[in-house]
Amino acid sequence: MCDTDHLLSNQTEQSGLSRRQILGAIGAVGAGAAAGTIIDPALAAATGATLDDKTQPASNAGYEPPTGLAKDSRAKSSALSWLDNNSAGVFGMNDEVWAHHELSLQEWNSSLLQATFLEKNGFKVQWGAAGFPTAYVATYVSGSGKPTIGFSVECDALPGLSQNKGVPYHDPQEYIDDAFSPTYGVGHGCGHCALGTAAIYAAVATAKGLAASRTDGTVKVYGATAEEYLLGKAYAVSRGVYKGLDALVDWHPGGDTSTGWGSSNAMQSISFTFLGIAGHGGTPLGNKSALDAATITGMLTEFLREENLAPSGRIHYAIRNGGQAPNVTPELAEVWYYVREGSPARVKILADKVVNCAKAAAMATQTSLVYKVTSGCWNKLPSQRGAELMYDNMQQIGAPVFSDADQKFATTLQGNIGLGSGGYSSTVSALSPPDPIFLGGGSTDVADISWQAPTIQMGTPVWPQGFKSHTWAVASSAASSGGHKALLSAAKYLAATAVDLYTQPNILGDMKDEFAKRTKNVTYEPLFPKDFEPPMYQPPDWFLKRTGQHWPPPNITWPRPKIISKEKFADLGPSLPPQDLPPLT
Q1: Hey, which bits of 227-367 come out as E strands?
Q2: Of 400, 515, 385, 391, which Cα lies nearest the Cα of 458?
Q3: Which residues, 6+ apart, have CB-to-CB distance to 197 below 8 Å?
Q4: Is the pTM of this model over 0.90?
Q5: Mean pLDDT for each consecutive 10-residue tract of the chain (585 residues)?
Q6: Which of 146, 228, 527, 548 allows an S-S link to 376, with CB 3.0 to 4.6 Å?
Q7: For residues 489, 494, 499 and 501, what is the CA-based torsion angle, rounded to 10 degrees?
């Protein structure tokens, strides 16, 4: 029996699905006989297909999480006590970052606020990680400095999701009034205000615990940029920023208190710029509309969905620039794509098809096309032992406790957005193995770190049950009383788990052994070109001065080369005389 048949046999036993159903779900059926005998190595590593039977549970139904992994210690009690005593600071930092609501690559105030707090608590901060102005690495060393445990910080917000905090109905804090195209401002519709705050306070609490107990170790805080673009950490990995890391303890706000060892989708981001020639909309003959090309690209990629998109695949896009007035044919238009799949190899295949759609659209509209990869990240490599340790700490510390007022706010919010019921989740969700069939979903650039060092991830209910992130309702909840309680719990889970990794080398050893088994047959390569230059924005002078940086960094070309259309009006051929004129004499 080949490795694939063995894997599928196990999956059939666990899920009750037939071998053909499983192959169909992962996109192998219908692509030829050979396709059914190949398992992608990156996806296999993430789903546990490379592990022995002692590491993986025999079936989902029979799995019982181990107990007794999380241990009481002086370092842990000191860390948790410090968090309780500094809860007001936790909530204050969250709300201040929430109020700044800065976009990816432009987190000037938020990153400075957080890094300054780390410096005041004994961390040494180095700015400009991987060349990104708002990225930094903060380091605290205790004793011998071994092992090194990391925390990941994000603080970017999203466009169009402005919302007043703690308001259960849609009430944009910033409404941008325009007679022709009104819109909303920026908002924390993914909860990164809470994400960065909890990670930073957990890191400081861990450092306090190490100092109080004289425990050896290095605490690293990686202040990243542009998670919403799935860019900062993936590129930083390629520049060696995470070398020497023994393990990463990470989290993301969510709708419940949970952890696990599932994977995520790999992703490639591509921007397509079409160049035509402007002309009067009332005399359109010969004009070349870049918007037509962008629109046709969208139409063509929609036709990929039936025969080229497996259940694990995702294609979504936004037309970022489609013209400014209907009576001016758009000379320049841009459509920005995220292409997702279960592994880097599958992403590349799907992304090539999207590129071909854009090329065809340019050919059909006689426009020119300039396109580039703007970011890319891998699928997440999980850590089963890490998740089990995190779960045990969650059980011991307990789920967040919400007041009646919190729950009333949550249920009102759920009713007003039409998602979920039951308010905030008030229990720790059971730990169970991931589904045997990977059907895709979101992506994270933390995934690239997970291929460098064992990575633990978890979530807490910063928003009510049943929500989707990237909504105004998440922005409202992220700075509410309920959101505060969930992010404080997150900080406690992170700190407690990190302390266990310092004080219990056997568990860290288990995680490293599992990591070695999972990565045995996989070679990591970044999911963007070798000559890739990451997108950046020039910082304000005050930010450069405060952080001691200079512009531009050496890894980008500045100023960026201009993209200017040099198209001519289309040739329609010889003029046709009116047919009703008398013949010439």
Answers
A1: 247-251, 258-259, 266-275, 314-321, 332-341
A2: 391
A3: 90, 93, 94, 97, 114, 487, 491
A4: yes
A5: 36 46 49 52 84 53 93 98 98 98 98 98 98 98 98 98 97 96 97 98 98 98 98 98 98 98 97 98 96 98 96 97 96 98 97 98 98 98 98 98 98 97 98 91 97 98 97 98 98 98 98 97 95 97 98 97 96 82 70
A6: 527
A7: 140
